[in-house]
Write a structure and sequence with these properties.
The complex is a heterotetramer of chains A (about 110), B (about 130), C (about 400) and D (about 100). Chain A has 3 helices and 7 strands. Chain A is of the alpha+beta class and about 110 residues long. Chain A has one domain (about 5-100): Roll (SH3 type barrels). Chain A has a 6-stranded mixed sheet, with no helix packed on it. In chain A, a hairpin with a 5-residue loop joins strand 3 and strand 4 (about 40-45). The radius of gyration of chain A is 15 Å and the shape is globular. With about 400 residues, chain C is mainly α. Chain C has helices at about 1-20, 20-35, 40-65, 65-110, 115-130, 135-145, 150-155, 160-170, 180-195, 195-210, 215-245, 255-300, 315-335, 340-365, 370, 380-405. Chain C starts with a helix and ends in a 5-residue tail after the last helix. Classes of the chains: A alpha+beta (about 110), B alpha+beta (about 130), C mainly alpha (about 400), D mainly alpha (about 100). At the B-C interface, strand 3 and helix 4 of B face helix 4, helix 6 and helix 13 of C.
């Protein structure tokens, strides 16, 4: 029953299969299972920017000039599904190459 | 709450206002605890941590260490931040609503100040003047 | 009838709340030194604070989430904390300046040295927060604050050469004898005095205190869109009085008593008494708002129970922090540092921290997940984005100008 | 000094409460005194400015004295003394004005 804190996980360096840096762990994605448990389904990795939190999910439509700025500031973000993670220790090692990773287009929040 | 869509802890849980069972604010979600079961598989969100002491690790760097040492000096008795089991959480959005009362530990400072400082000043127990 | 009553009170509170010692000093000093050439800064500042306050009140009323609660949520704990500490420092300085302002106003009415009045002023302000109900509080300083109309009457009574005033106001440049950096320093001072973060924080948090809901948004907007401009009109009148009377006489304003000179010259004893009442009300009202804003920001960041309307016993940490804020501010003024200098520095610091709270509010005001259909319209967004860039420029220029002109020498 | 002149006018015409005039006159005097003192303590850069300094220092101290007598007169409500102080102040102001005129 090992436990870790999200604060320890966030900020940990992340490497892809070939050891190339994916930046650091930005966030943890969880999903509520039928039994009511919140299971981690993946990590969001990338370069840390304050704007990382700004953009939130799809429900934010900042005025046109800022929309591009926010998306540009978060261009490094990639989503690492839990199955693609070989070793969640420090640093986090992925089983896949960085090129096959996509940004996380999941639902930001809203009426979760 | 059968919502299945995944969500990011940083967007929905972290730094969110906690409202306890009877609707009173009970601090912010300062950190989240993940637990690995023996059978392998992905970890599970097991608890929310709330207490300004828990904020320390999130303020990385020198400020964080400063913060933690200040907290330890202020409250040597309390080493562990207040822990809220995930099962007690009714909903995560728009704020983190609990089904139960907030853990006593979250309100230690509030209680101490109420009894030793604010409670002593006359008029402290006046009723809520709902804006009138 | 009740609707009308609460409307007028809200409107008055917006006037009384808008003007504080920063406005009194900034507008009078600028008028005395630069004539009306800085008049443009007042409307620009008023539109800015109206926009910001409307957005943050709309966000707070619709989501029930207060400003600093959202600042932390959007910026995260660390950036949120940096933001909180910077704003708290600016708010504390503003509180000290306004407590000094109350003491100076009382000195004018009693010729007892202002330092003796400082503890009285601080205690009085804190006591009103502690005991007097919310609307009762806003009503008193709102009504008394309107006494500052005496400056508008004074402008009319002084019978100025309106043409010259207009030329100076549209010159958008310092008088030949004055250097540009100093002129820009005072422009930042006037803008910073108008766009104070505490006004926004207080206004949106009081919406929660008074239990406003989306239906009350209309009333909140009328208070903002009529109250603030009227406050701006009074600020302009103060600047005009100084421009008409003090500027030609080469008198530079260093004391609150000089700010009141035009009222005395134009309207005699009645004018002077009204001016002093107006000073007392605006600085007293400001102390209440700033004192609360300081408590709100910290309580909202840490998620404590907060609110003046809740019984103090149930919001012990909030009231403790608010009390400590008053003690710290009073201690600062009691060090005999010149309250007028503290006022100028507090305004410069407010201008520097303004974008820190403006940015998160602008972001949330565009988030359909939070506001649904009440997100910013296209026009609001364009104006809001312009002001974002303007506020950032202001914030970056404020401190260098303060240092370079050595406090506007 | 401008403030002093305004205070004098208001006092003569009794258009402002004595308390206010007293405080304003006192503040004006304190400011003038500190400006005069700091100016006097400045080291004159060159001989040419000695002559200028010789003119200014006495004029500055005259102004301070006149403001002090104004404060006293206002506090006593003695309008005659106020008028004298005002004359003295105006003279000092004109003196300083002329010096400024010649140097600029």
């Amino acid at each position: 029953m090992a436990t870790t804190l999200v604060s320890d996980l966030i900020g940990r360096p992340a490497l892809d299969r070939d050891g190339r840096s994916l930046g650091t762990v930005q966030d943890v994605v969880v999903r509520r299972t039928r039994e009511g448990r919140y299971e981690v389904v993946g990590l969001v990795v990338g370069r840390h920017t304050v704007a990382g939190r700004f953009g939130y999910g799809g429900t934010l439509e900042p005025p046109t000039p800022w929309h591009r700025v926010l998306r540009w500031m978060r261009r490094h973000e990639r989503y690492l599904a839990w199955e693609d993670i070989a070793d969640p220790a420090d640093p986090v090692r992925a089983r896949v190459a960085s090129t096959d990773l996509r940004a996380w287009r999941g639902h930001g929040h809203g009426r979760v | 709450m059968e919502e299945q869509t995944p969500f990011r802890i940083g967007f929905v849980v972290l730094d969110r206002q906690i409202i306890d069972g009877d609707g009173r604010p009970a601090g912010k979600v300062d950190d989240v605890e993940l637990t690995w079961e023996e059978g392998g598989g992905p970890p599970v969100m097991s608890a929310l941590l709330t207490d300004s002491a828990a904020l320390g690790p999130r303020i990385s760097g020198r400020a964080g260490r400063l913060w933690r040492s200040a907290m330890r000096r202020l409250r040597p008795s309390v080493s562990e931040p207040a822990r809220i089991a995930v099962e007690d959480v009714a909903a995560f959005s728009p704020s983190t609503r609990l089904t139960t009362a907030a853990p006593e530990q979250a309100n230690l400072a509030e209680a101490w100040l109420r009894d030793h400082v604010i409670g002593r000043i006359p008029g402290a127990r006046r009723g809520d003047d709902a804006g009138e | 009838m009740k609707r009308l009553l609460s409307f007028t009170l809200g409107f008055l509170a917006a006037i009384g709340g808008f003007l504080d010692v920063g406005d009194l000093v900034a507008n009078s000093v600028s008028g005395a030194r630069f004539g009306m050439s800085l008049a443009w800064a007042v409307p620009v500042g008023v539109v800015g604070v109206m926009l910001f306050t409307e957005m943050s009140t709309r966000v707070t009323v619709v989501t029930g989430r207060s400003t600093f609660d959202l600042v932390r949520e959007r910026l995260g704990a660390r950036a949120g904390l940096v933001n909180l500490l910077a704003c708290y420092l600016a708010t504390l300085l503003t509180l000290a300046a306004n407590i000094g302002g109350i003491a100076l106003a009382l000195e004018l009415a009693s010729s007892i040295h202002y330092l003796l009045w400082v503890p009285v002023a601080a205690f009085l302000s804190w006591f009103v927060i502690w005991r007097v109900p919310f609307q009762g509080m806003e009503r008193t300083y709102g009504l008394l604050g309107v006494a500052l109309i005496v400056f508008s009457v004074a402008v009319w009574r002084l019978g100025p050469d309106w043409g010259a005033l207009l030329d100076s106001a549209t010159s958008f440049a310092p008088p030949p004898t004055e250097p540009w950096p100093t002129w820009w320093f005072y422009a930042v001072l006037v803008l910073g005095a108008a766009m104070t973060p505490y006004t926004v924080l207080f206004f949106s948090s009081s919406a929660v205190e008074e239990g406003w809901t989306a239906e009350d948004l209309r009333e909140a907007r009328t208070n903002i869109f009529i109250g603030f401009p009227f406050g701006g009109f009074l600020a302009l009148s103060i600047m005009a009085c100084a421009a008409i009377l003090l500027h030609p006489a080469g008198v530079n304003v260093h004391e609150l008593d000089q700010v009141a000179l035009p009222a005395a010259v134009a309207l005699g004893k009645v004018g002077l008494i009204l001016a002093v009442i107006g000073f007392f009300a605006s600085t007293f009202g400001a102390s209440l708002e700033v004192g609360l804003a300081a408590g709100y920001s910290i309580a909202q960041y840490f998620g404590w129970t907060w609110g003046k309307t809740t019984a103090p016993v149930r919001a012990a940490r909030f009231h403790t922090v608010t009390l400590l804020g008053f003690v710290a501010a009073t201690a600062l003024i009691l060090t005999t540092v010149d309250p007028i200098k503290v006022t100028e520095v507090s305004v410069i610091l407010s201008a520097t921290t303004l974008p820190l709270t403006y940015l998160p509010v602008l972001v949330v005001a565009n988030d359909r997940g939070y506001l649904g259909s009440l997100v910013n319209g296209r026009a609001t967004n364009i104006l809001a984005s312009l002001y974002l860039v303007f506020m950032l420029a202001l914030a970056l220029a404020a401190i260098p100008l303060l240092v370079f002109t050595k406090g506007g020498q | 000094m401008g403030t002093g002149l305004f205070v004098a006018d208001l006092a003569e015409a009794d258009r402002a409460p004595g308390v206010y005039l007293d405080v304003t006159a006192t503040h004006a005097e304190e400011r003038a005194r500190s400006i005069a003192a700091s100016f006097a303590s400045l080291h004159p850069p060159g001989p040419a400015s000695d002559e200028l300094r010789a003119q200014l220092v006495p004029l500055a101290s005259d102004a301070v004295e006149e403001l002090a007598s104004l404060r006293i007169a206002v506090r006593r409500g003695d309008t005659a003394a106020v008028r004298d102080a005002e004359r003295g102040l105006r003279a000092a102001a004109d003196g300083l004005g002329s010096v400024r005129g010649s140097t600029v």
